[in-house]
Amino acid sequence: MLTVRGSVGVLPLMLGLSEEYNKSKNVSCEIDVSAVGGSSALEMIASNKADLAMTEESAGELPAGASGVVFAYEAVAIVINPSCGLTDLSSEQIRGIFSGESDEWADFGGKGKITLVVPEQDNGFRKYFEETFSLRAPISGIMQSLIPAGAVVSSDPEGEVTKTEGAIGICSAAALIHAENTVSVNGVALSEQTLKDGSYGAGRAILLVMGKEPRDDVQSFYDFCLSDKARKLTKSIGFMPVE
C-alpha cells in the first residue's frame, strides 16, 4: 500500500492524482489518501508513517533526508466587471467589500452598486479565500463566513461577474478565462512569477514531498505527479501546475 497524507485544502488534488495514476498506469495500486493537516503530514514523512505528502509550503521545514518540490499553486483571482472602473484593490478593501461594509463602489474608489458573486459556502476554495482575507469569525462559538447572505452564489463566478454590471467575485486562478477582468492585489498582479516570488498575497505554493530511500512504487507515483498528464489534471481540479 502507498500512503499519501496532506492538508485538508489539498485533498481533492491528492484524490484526483491517485485515481488518475491507477487509470493511466493500468495498474491496481492501493493508495491510502487522507487529510491530516500539513504539519502532521510532514511529521508522518519524518517518522516513516507516510510515503508522500502534499501540503502548503508554509506547513514547515522538510524532514531530514526528504525531497520536496513545488509542483502547484493555489491562488485566488479577484474578478471584477469593467463597469466598476477599478484595476487594483488592497487587502483591506477586499475584506471590506466582501464583508458587506458598503454596497456602493464609490466607497472603494469605483462606480455603481456592488454585487458580490461567490461559490457555495461549503466550497473549499471559498474557505481558503475567506481565511486569506480574514473573512471568517466566531459567531456563537462557531467559525462562520462574514460574506453577506445576499451575495450571489454561482458555480461560475467569473461568468456571472462578466455579465453583471457592478459585480465582483472570486475564482481559482487555474479556472480563469478572462485575465483582463482581474484586479491586482496591493499593487501586485496575479501571474506565475508573482506566485513563485510570493509577492502576490492571495496565493500559496503546494509541495510534493517524498521520504528518503523511497520504494519503487512511491518513486513511480511521485514521478507521475510531475508529468504532463498530471499537470493537466492539476489544473482541472483548480490548482495552477508548475510548468
TrEMBL record:
InterPro entries: PBP_domain (IPR024370), Phosphate_ABC_transporter (IPR050811)
Membrane keyword on record: no
Domain PBP residues, every copy: 3-229
Signal sequence segment: none
Coiled coil (residue ranges): none
Keyword Signal: yes
Protein name: Phosphate-binding protein PstS
Source organism of the structure: bioreactor metagenome
